[in-house]
Amino acid sequence: MKANPLVDFVIPNRNNAAYIGECLQSIRAQTYTNWKCILVDDNSTDNSVDLIEKLIEGDDRFQLIALSERAGVSTVRNMGIDAAEGDYVTFVDSDDIIVPEYLETLVHEALRSDSDYTRCRHWLFRENGQLVPNAQDDVWSAPVRNVSFNDHASAVFYFSSWATLIRRSVLGADVRYPENVALGEDRIFNQRAMLNSSRISQISARLYKWRRLGKDSNQATHHLLESFEPIRISIIEWLNQTNTLDDSYADHKMFVHTSAFFELWWHVWRLRNELFDGRPHAQWNDAEQVLKAIDMDLVDLTQVNVKAYNDYMQSGYDAVMRNLDLSIKPLSKIFVDQVGRQTRESDTRPAPANGQNMHPLGKYLSEYASLQGEEFISSLIRQRWYFHQADLVQAALVRKSGMFDKRYYTKRVGDTGGLDPALHFVRYGAVALINPQAKFDIRAYYEKHPELWASGLNPIVHRLLVIGE
């Protein structure tokens, strides 16, 4: 084992001229000095290449690979891996920053524990310069030393490949970023790298600054409708890769299947709550097609047939509709208990996938709820309420309420994407703050009852069944 191993930085860049200088400055400031840096520019249309050439001029530790055609971030990172010659590889995004002790600390830990895959924690780096610990990520990044991937199931939630030092010998030809995945590619790469590693270590030191830009930036996660298809592809690829693991990875499979299920629903929640701010950014039917595709993804990845799945969910919604006088936490617990009971009592079992039997949905819900506790229980109804069965129930109540003016609403919306106006109001209109009639002010109603925004209960349904008007 070398006492002073060579480390290759791999930095992909695409139109980050505004930040690349700060990134490279943090590379040069490293207290550990035996490193080289490979920059791969993905055919930037700003002045990134000219700026990088100027910044690295005369410093032979830097190598720039400038592409004449756009290849995508996964291909770009793979090119960086292929060009690496050091003992270890570490990844830094071109708009991020590392602290001066980043390499020194990671190399020290890798040598001390003889780890193939060594990881640190990170900061969220706000536009105003504020540094905030990523507490959500910390839940899954508790310090460990010299563990195998097989014995460390929560490592499936290592979603970023930066802030990681990887022994280059681990990165065989089969350990590359998936080039068909444009978002969430890191977690798939990480899993491949950890499967090929004998020892994994996670330290508590916070050495990486992950820049989080505002909604006006070009960061992909801020442009939800455009990023929805890449997100879906990422989740399904992650799931498919996990399904190839043998039975000794049962906990990993449970984590990934359940996480994938609720990640899809979280993005459905975001789409319906953030996509529209009173004016549609896309045609309603575009969003509707996305949601229909996700419905089928959810069925596929849980391996539950459509009828059984709808029956499970409908039983939960029926139970909720009978208990709308309860607050959100007991209401959501009723939902979980009912769906779990329905799946356990049903004779329907998931169809085999690739010769392997999956857990039924009820078992996933039960196991995941026990791991996440009350916080998960209280959030479940928010993430699942918008399932189309609940939409249909609420739409029927809206039609019967006498508070929905179909002609008025349709005139306000213009295009409902082929949806029945009441269903459109339940699914999109309320969260887009489109009034159902001239005398019903949706915005004012949400302000008066802010708990509705989190619960998913339609304002008309709330007024009808909870307020009793």
UniProtKB/TrEMBL annotation:
<dbReference type="InterPro" id="IPR001173">
    <property type="entry name" value="Glyco_trans_2-like"/>
</dbReference>
<dbReference type="Pfam" id="PF00535">
    <property type="entry name" value="Glycos_transf_2"/>
</dbReference>
<protein>
    <submittedName>
        <fullName>Family 2 glycosyl transferase</fullName>
    </submittedName>
</protein>
<dbReference type="InterPro" id="IPR029044">
    <property type="entry name" value="Nucleotide-diphossugar_trans"/>
</dbReference>
<dbReference type="GO" id="GO:0016758">
    <property type="term" value="F:hexosyltransferase activity"/>
</dbReference>
<keyword id="KW-0808">Transferase</keyword>
<feature type="domain" description="Glycosyltransferase 2-like">
    <location>
        <begin position="9"/>
        <end position="170"/>
    </location>
</feature>
